[in-house]
Design a protein that fits this description.
By secondary structure, this protein is an all-alpha fold. It has a single domain, classed as Serine Threonine Protein Phosphatase 5, Tetratricopeptide repeat (Alpha Horseshoe). It contains seven helices and no strands. The longest helix is centred in the N-terminal third of the chain and has 15 residues.
Length: about 130
């Protein structure tokens, strides 16, 4: 890592430690880009728990694919996708709809009714 990048990460870490949720999200993205999945999950979790929708989406994705965790956690991933989608993150609605379409995101892993998938996809286009 370049010295200027190290300074940037140090400043982001300081800001995140002071409660700045966007810094938490950016640290999650930074560590994700470097395939440092445990660190990415750590920062996405902090941002998600602080209420930042994009961090909710990032955490949902990591839980969905099992990066930074022992194994995928589909019900938890669906929960974070659902919260991010409700806050207007279109990508989260898409991922949630796909999970329902292929039968993930419930405490049981069976195909769910198409209505569950279509209601998630409907979040993308709105009413009508």
């Amino acid at each position: 890592m370049q010295p200027w990048a190290e300074d940037g990460v140090a400043l982001l870490t300081q800001a995140a430690g002071q409660g700045h949720v966007y810094a938490m999200q950016m640290l999650g993205d930074f560590h994700d880009q470097r395939s440092e999945h445990e660190q990415a999950v750590k920062w996405y979790t902090k941002g998600a728990e602080a209420g930042l929708p994009m961090a909710m989406f990032g955490l949902g994705y990591k839980l969905d694919v099992g990066e930074g965790a022992a194994a995928p956690d589909y019900p938890a991933a669906a929960g974070w996708y659902r919260r991010a989608a409700a806050a207007g993150v279109g990508g989260a609605a898409t991922h949630l709809g796909h999970m329902y379409e292929v039968g993930r995101g419930r405490s049981w892993h069976i195909r769910v009714l198409p209505a569950s998938a279509s209601s998630s996809f409907r979040l993308l286009v709105g009413p009508g």
